[in-house]
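Aim 2, interim progress. The first record below pairs a target sequence with its structure tokens.
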Amino acid sequence: MTIILKIRKTNPEIILVKQAAEIIRKGGLVAFPTETVYGLGADALNAKAVEKIFEAKGRPADNPLIAHIADMKDVYKLASEVPKDAELLMKEFWPGPLTIILKKSKIVPDIVTAGLDTVAIRMPSHKVALALIKEAKTPIAAPSANLSGKPSPTDANQVIEDMLGRVDVIIDSGSCDIGVESTVIDMTVKPALILRPGGLPKEKIEKFLKNIGKEEKSEKPKSPGMKYKHYAPNAEVIVVEGSKNKVMKKAKELVEEYKSKEKKVGVITTFKEHGYDADVVKYVGNTEKEVARKIFKALRDFNKEDIHIIIAEGIEEKGIGEAVMNRLRKAAGYNIIEVK
């Protein structure tokens, strides 16, 4: 049986936070809010508890997790080496949507790191998340609180859809502010490598680290979200990329094409006045930040509409737009049409 605890976002009720933290200490699972997306947490130093995360999500065991902390000192417990550049980023961007990969210490169970010699660490800025970690008195390992491969949850109702009956506690603190996961940077290599674009735009990191490498592809991913198909709704997704007017023109052609084949078609658009003749049209805003907040919810909502095909307009890859496009392409299984 899953307990649902409604906890205020800005001034968390500490008695309720303590109730959830006790579950973490006892080896249970707690879904909790962060500023990025909802996470599914367990005691990061308890291998048996962490194993329950993989079972609840149906997550492959070779997909590493992020250890969430509330005290900077814990980095030096979880990591065996902390380069000066990593300390610079920690000081500047924590708490916040940045995950830093470092060489792991012996106290971190192999199941957290998928057997790698590195560990991913972040300090969330959400007050409920920080309070939960502090009261649990242990780092909390947590991926996003959804069934593996599905769109990440950005409010508690989406967590309930996937995790009710699979976890001990779901904390409901409303909607997440950012809407896409944290940026992941590997500080164990030179130059440092952004493995996953996310809530902290690369442009901000580059003000402090001038030389940043490009994402690597690997059979042993160091970061969540690198190897498997992610963020996917039930319907097939097609992403149309290019100049705005040409994207809309091509998207309208695709809508007509699939409707002529008696397919139920959905569209994700950044145009309020779009003119699409689709079965369902979801407007997700016209700024990168607004799209980031709404994109996962839009993908999830199509599951309730019995849509066969989703046509998604690409957006400009600046700021958090890079993270949005990363998620959309993965949701589509890289089924992309470019128009020039």
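The second target in this work package is listed in the same format:
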Amino acid sequence: MPINPRVMPFTKHFVELRKRFTYAFFTFLVLAFVFYSDFFYGLFMDILLHPIRDYIPGGRLTVLGPFETLTFRFKMSLYASFVVSSPVILYNVFAFIMPAIKKKERKWLIPTVTAAIVLFLCGVAFAYFIIMGPAFEFLFEQGGGVVGSIASADLYLSGIAMMLIGFGIAFELPLVVFYLIGWNIVPFDSMLKSWRFAIVIIMIVAAIATPDWSPINMGGLSLALIILYFGALVLARIVFAEKIKQQRIDKLEYDEMYAQVGEEDVTDDDLPLPGNFETLSRKEQMIARAKAQAHARQAK
């Protein structure tokens, strides 16, 4: 499945897209049928239920009818197929978009994709090995020994999948923080000073990412994300040292100019703004306006 050249006729892009989709979907479909077999079905169920088997009433999941058994097994094979075939799916997605990306941008693409996959797997592993057991124990203890529960196979599968996927997606936070700083969307110093606000956002994200609001799920994910958040800041400080230094110089320059120029002294109509003012970033517009105010005031 080689990557096609960058320049192609417009219609061939659709042919390429169909080819990539066919490769990915065929792999997903074949694996789904393979994983429906008794061997793989038993293997995946043992892996999935291992951390919580002691907290399942009777140690087995329950279905309410023969049709639900078929549906549950098929759904299980689809989940497993999606996870195992995800490298092939990702490869075909990036093989389609790679020719449109400049060489300068490509050097960040592979590390970014690799980091995203590693962070997602770390989130899944964190939920599986650390959170699932204590979380299910806590949930069952809420019955107080008076309220019993039926271990519905479908509800268990949906809840576990939501937990694992939610933790995996939430663990992408460091990547978001890293690129917000790297692309000058949010200055490093602003993100560092807003750590209290960031913690509140993290707790909201933890509440959304977990299937329940138990303190173990939310607390465990919140603590992990807080550590990852500050870890991302440290990494960004090292990687973008020169960019952060320039951000601080620009801010200092603007603050000094703005302190010398009162907004009431000069109206926007009097400012000799550069011709490309509208295309500048917000930070560059602020600096350009401050400089123009200083020149206009001197002219008066």
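Residues 52 and 133 are 5 Å apart (CA to CA). This observation will shape the mutagenesis plan for the next reporting period.
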